[in-house]
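note to self: dont lose this again. the chain is below, predicted strucutre after it. 254 aa total, dont forget to put it in the shared folder this time
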Amino acid sequence: MPEPYTTQRMLSLRKLTRAAAEQMRNQLKEILSAVGPLLQPKVALGDYVRGVKEPVRGADALFKEIESMYHAVASEKPFSVRRELTPPLDFSGSSVDVNPLEYSHTASVKGQSKRVTVTSPFRWVLSFAGHSLPELKTLLASTSPSNDQLHAFVLHYVTLKCQVDRQTALANIFKALRYKLSVTTQPEFGSLPLTCVSAPIFTVRPPDEVIIETTELTGSDAFEEVIDLEGLATLRDPMKDSLVELARAHGEQM
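---
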């Protein structure tokens, strides 16, 4: 039977989760420092980017994908920006950064409910520098966000998504290093594509009564998922598994 989520156990799990998340994030940032240059818009778009003179093969098709997705996302709430994408495009930041994925959850127990912001510490949202989700949230919460700023955020996220879709080798690199690339959306950002990367370690969200009790104790509306110890105990090595299967296929007993 799994141990109950007592206050002391939650403190212990949170310390372990944060230590593991820091280790995983540091490793991920090292990976991004190596593969990040592949995601610079100028690499795939060439002279569609301001300041770049050389054309790049495949840039025409990529621009059309970006243009189509941009119009679909930007024209809807919460952005409601209607403008044409006219090359050359401006990208104020080209380095890639990561921030933990957050989502809203309504915890309910015995007629009591509370809306909290939950963090998934082993799943991160990729973004170009200066265009993180926390910065976008701040912009959308402002009284009158400028269309230019909203345009820039949509353009950066759509471009990143389209580039990742086209670079299948990039997904294979992450997979070989045990990380997984995926795309998601969140209601508060409409259909804005969020490119995410996940560590091979999973987390769990404790029962709602634990969430409500914990947030009441801390006086906060924020909560963090905690490491899944059962999943950690069964963590497998894909390379080892494939090699063992290969050995068995050749008649070797492992």
